[in-house]
Design goal:
By secondary structure, the protein is mainly α. It contains 12 helices and no strands.
Length: about 230
């Protein structure tokens, strides 16, 4: 049997994440790249414009310009609850995350009049949302603006602020998102085909012990998750 291949990140993404040096391009390739950059920037501007416009509409029409209600994570607004329920489905293709971001940026735009906040693009405003406190958001916006931080650097800056305040990055997860992750894990393991391969795979005792240990850990973790879900 050949060696098993594990899934890996696309090489371009891995290179970018690890700060790889610029790729050498020919003159022809450089022209294509320049065109791609211009089109990409046009796309960013269009997406941000539509996201901001949608958020403003939600704030006005769904929440009657009540920013406190719009920022309430426990909102009982029936229209909002139904929008969140439908997000990511056949009748509302945008994600719940985008829905929340559009509304929250609109609410904070309504409450914060400072030029340092208003001058930021939607992408960097989104990265400041986890700070929650508007005074902290405004202070961070000033720093981001003065230092002209990129989105990547802004994310690192916000992460540092949250860690310093004892608030590590929290990840919003929904039942649908978690189910998708479980499905991805299950299909990634290979199902019945993987079981057949394992039965014919020659293993040394040490390798077998490692695989058995990991599978048992996975079994125990899944068991605890099932208990947590069924106990709801």
């Amino acid at each position: 049997m050949g060696t098993n291949k594990t899934a890996s990140r696309p090489s371009a993404l891995a290179r970018a994440e690890h700060g790889g040096p610029p790729v050498h391009l020919t003159a022809t390739q450089r022209k294509v790249l320049d065109r791609a950059l211009r089109l990409g920037e046009d796309l960013r501007e269009e997406l941000e414009s539509k996201t901001l416009a949608y958020g403003r509409w939600l704030l006005e029409e769904v929440f009657d310009d009540d920013t406190a209600a719009a920022l309430d994570d426990k909102s009982k607004n029936p229209i909002w609850q139904e929008l969140v329920r439908r997000a990511g489905g056949p009748t509302l293709g945008i994600t719940q995350h985008l829905l929340y971001v559009a509304l929250r940026i609109a609410a904070h735009d309504h409450r914060i009049s400072a030029a340092t906040w208003r001058g930021l693009d939607a992408g960097r405003k989104e990265l400041l949302l986890p700070l929650h406190n508007e005074r902290a958001m405004l202070s961070a916006a000033k720093h981001v603006s003065e230092m002209n931080l990129s989105q990547k650097k802004t994310a690192e800056y916000v992460r540092g602020l949250r860690e310093a305040a004892g608030k590590p990055r929290s990840v919003r997860i929904t039942p649908a998102t978690f189910a998708t992750r479980v499905k991805r894990l299950r299909t990634g393991l290979g199902g019945a085909a993987a079981v057949r391969r394992l039965r014919t795979l020659t293993m040394q005792p040490g390798d077998r012990a490692i695989v058995v240990n990991e599978l048992e850990e996975l079994r125990d973790a899944v068991g605890e998750m099932l208990k947590a879900v069924k106990g709801k």
